[in-house]
Amino acid sequence: MSKANIEMIVAEAFDAAKKAEADFRAEHGEPFYCGFAWVNVTPGNCNLANYLKKKNLGEKAYGGGVDVWNPGGSGTQSMDIKEEGSRAFAEVLRKYGFKAYARSRAD
Question: Where is 88: in which H helix or E strand?
């Protein structure tokens, strides 16, 4: 896969994450359950993972792969909102054949 294709996919994924967060916030407000959400991309040496690391969009994950933290860019502490963004981001990557999984944990 070309670098241009990967750039397009990553841009689409970030846009989807931002939209998912905005849509969730518009419908539900900002739930108070605090936490973190991210997307894990595996394997950590695939073209996408290497691109994410090179562009400082992702970092090597402790359990393997590459993690993209808070892909929706939300400044909120609401785990629900961040989870929506992470799910949307991972869904776009999976649509293009990459292995990507949304993860989260409470604060």
Answer: helix 79-95
**Distance between CA atoms of 99 and 107, rounded to whole angstroms?**
26
Enter the DSSP assignment of 34.
B
**d(C-alpha 106, C-alpha 85), whole Å:** 16
Q: At what angle do helices 47-54 and 3-28 cross, to 10 degrees?
A: 80
b/e per residue 17-33 (b: at least 16 CB within 10 A): bbebbeebbeeeeeeee
* Consecutive 10-residue averages of pLDDT for the chain (107 residues): 90 98 96 95 96 97 96 95 98 98 95
Q: Residues 3, 51: contact at Cβ < 8 Å? A: yes
| Residue type at position 19 | K
